[in-house]
Amino acid sequence: MASSSNQSPLPSFEDANEVPANPHISASVPSGAAQIPYQGRKTLPTQNVMYVCDFDMCFTYVLAGWEGTANDARIFMEAVSDPQSKFPHPPTGKYYVVDSGYSNMLGYLAPYRGQRYHLNDYPETRLPLSAREKFNHSHSSLRNIIERCFGVLKARFPILKMMPSYSLRKQRNIVITSCAIHNFIRRHAMEDDLFLEYGIDDMIVPGEGPSDPSETTSYANLSASESQKRRHEMDSYRDGIRTGMSLHYRLPM
């Protein structure tokens, strides 16, 4: 499902490859004990769906069917460690732009925690005051693509906002099929009204917030020392981008 045109729009993030996220989709579950695992962030039944999209607003990976209470980090680790999930790992030398619920680790570039992050945290009167904030603002601008991509999906397929009483298997397949149709339209109908509406880079689409940081991602099947080494490599890479921004924009580190 890879797109033929997938280049980061920001020079400082030229090795950025794709953007993962876990928006929630409406789920229809019988009332009672069976519904409890699906009561997600807004108490209504949802399924937690892991998406990866490219910078051309196409979905390159969809893992649907998880309960709404499932932690994003758990879903991620299941996806990357299970060969049957066919998770598309970042190519060598590239990375995914992930939110603060992910660890900053090799192949997955996370923002700096404890700093302003979301685009609406940076109105015209409150521009970035440090290189860390500039990094986070640029990082958030890149991740905005997944919110806009998901905005198109929900606008085109209202069924995703209020799922009928189908079997859970059928509900999962509806999500996957919707993404496939989304990709087909993106590639073959470039004048589509919804893609034109949501195609503005600076458009702010309300998201669901970052993944739960209480359970962060880590490397599967690696020793603690090797995991720490890979995190250190990505920390150094992130600091390198920050240093470049500090020099270019004359901002304190």
Automatic annotation (TrEMBL):
GO terms for cellular component: nucleus. It is found in: Nucleus. It comes from the Eukaryota. Residues 1-26, 206-235 are annotated as: Disordered. One of its GO terms (molecular function) is hydrolase activity. Its cofactor is a divalent metal cation. Residues 1-10, 213-226 have a biased composition (Polar residues). Residues 38-183 form the DDE Tnp4 domain. Coiled coil: none annotated. Its main location: nucleus. Keywords: Hydrolase, Metal-binding, Nuclease, Nucleus. Belongs to the HARBI1 family. This is DDE Tnp4 domain-containing protein. It comes from Papaver somniferum.
